User: What shape does this take?
Amino acid sequence: MTGNLRQTKWVIHSDRKILDEAAADILIDVLNKVQNPVIGFATGSSPLGVYQSLVKRSLASPALLERWSHVHGFNLDEYVGLSEQHEQSYHAYMWNHLYQFLPVKPENIHVPNGNGDLISNCLAYDEALAEHGWPDVQILGIGKNGHIGFNEPAQTLSLHTHVTDLTENTRSANARFFTNEQEVPTQAITMGIADILQARQIILLAFGEEKREALIRSFSGSVSTLCPASFLQMHANVTVLTDKEVPELK
Ligand code: F6R
Assistant: This one.
């Protein structure tokens, strides 16, 4: 094991269901232990099974279900220019896949606002995160290019919530959710790298062969802005859940 790996916890299993349940276990532990839990949510394909598990297990346990009324949810990012009602907005994603099934309080649900005065929206989002004390646990997916949130590979990275241009790599990866690639927004609002690293605990979901290379680049070597997920090596409590063996990291 390398020094980096000693710090990062790895859960590797070929069965996605087992990984989904393992991620849900971590989240449920936080839900049960923290009085007013702050949870950082991601969207996209990776967390879908985790959200299904959370809903199923919460509906099966009145005590766990009740815990959701104390949750403050903060999403990592949102497209610029889509209305909240747009079916591909991350607002809509969260209600469709998670919140509609749970007794969350709408006033406790935070997703960056990708419309109106974007600079003020970014500042307001960071203020709300700080006011609530930052996430007790942050769920992350990873882009094939190593992005986390929409912090895309670049010469420099922003620390806090900001407006970002989406790379062609990311737009074409996300085109599967839209009718065609032209419809994918060109910009997003995303929490910054320092915001993400403020979470007390981080769960990184990396499923499929297409994420293996990004995982290797993120955890095998030096920290680089050209692979934003490599900054996770600096965090003391990251659990990576992946269905691919990564012998390169041993
Ligand atoms: C989504 C997000 C992105 C995704 C990443 C992986 O809120 O912040 O970083 O986690 O693009 O997306 P999927 O899971 O669709 O492969």
About this structure: The mean pLDDT is 95. The radius of gyration is 17 Å. The first strand starts at residue 9 and ends at 12. The beta strands are 9-12, 38-41, 72-75, 77-79, 109-110, 137-140, 162-165, 187-190, 202-206, 238-242.
